[in-house]
Amino acid sequence: MSEYHKPRRPSFRDPAALEALGERSDPIAALHAAHETAAVLLHTGRAAGDPAVTERLIALVDDIGLPTLADLWASRPARSLPGALFRLYVLREWMRTSPADAAREYAYGVPYTEPNHVVAGVEPTGPTEVARVADEILRGVFTGDFAVALERAAAFCRVVVAGRAFAGEGTRSVMDAARLRDMADDLAASARLWRAGKLN
Fold it and tell me: d(Cα 24, Cα 7) in Å, to the nearest integer?
């Protein structure tokens, strides 16, 4: 498909695509590069105090493509700084490129997990609001409480998981929901690690 030839567009959109990513050929170099780039990105964003810088960091995937971030961060543990940041960007990309799908699944899940809906903050539950919240979560990474941003992303995932379970469209839907549930758990665990000063 032509999508695979456009460097500014990702080659995968759903968070479940995380499972398909491969390993590095040089694990030591990859480990250092992943953690150093994640730390520099986060420090730059949080220290800048410049809305223009924040907006550029939020839209990082729009500029470099999700596969580029995958090359740097996807092989790191989910409960690490690069792993958590990568999952936030994957989630944002899906929310912004498939807002109607995300909004539909989210809306299905709201009645079954109201506390997570409150934390996620998608109100009303339409495509425009989903796309807005995708940016708000990443904006919180750079200008607010990083742990809260992680928890907000986790809550969004949990509402969608409930929505997918409600929709029940076969085995693939169930498996995707399981992977998204794992992402939610990892993001919530990363928030706890960040608060403890142990998310590296």
Answer: 21
